[in-house]
Amino acid sequence: MVSSYRLIKQAKMIKTDDFSSVFSFRKRVASEHLVVHYLPNQQALARLGLVIGKKTAKLAVSRNYMKRVLRELFRYKQHEITHVDLIVRVQKKFNQSEFKQIKQEFDVLMTKLNHKAVLNTQKVTLASSAQLQERA
């Protein structure tokens, strides 16, 4: 059972270097409104970074609403997400009337992300076991 749904300070990505390393890894999953860039990390938790440009939503009120919604969705899903650094980038502006659609998109993206992370882990395991067999 989940101990807490709190969004702890360590689960937030703040530094520019962290964002740069995730963007340079060049792995992403996308939907109509959201794009999630990700990078596996060595920590015991998923970390979240948010990018909402002025091009997407001119008003700060709109950008802040989108950030609050995405932080809340991450907070509920953080224990189900594999250990990755996530950057959620908003492609298309959304508002209160589209909340259900955004929640559904976020859930689908996190499912895809977890599936891809498992596949990548299996590939690494298979590659390392093949190298061990070659040495023997």
Count of helical segments? 3
CATH class: Alpha Beta
SS content category = alpha+beta
Biggest β-sheet strands, sense, barrel: 4 strands, mixed
What is the domain tally? 1
Overall 3D form: elongated
- Give the number of DSSP strands: 4
Q: H/E element string?
A: HEEEHEH
- The share of residues in extended strands comes to 15-25%
Quote the CATH topology.
Answer: Ribosomal Protein S5, domain 2
Ends distance: 43 Å
- Order of strands in the sheet with the most strands? 1-2-4-3
Q: Per CATH, which architecture?
A: 2-Layer Sandwich
Radius of gyration: 17 Å
What proportion of the residues is helical, as a percent range? Answer: 40-55%
Instruction: Tell me, rounded to a whole number, the average pLDDT.
Output: 83
- Which blocks of ≥5 consecutive residues have pLDDT under 50? none
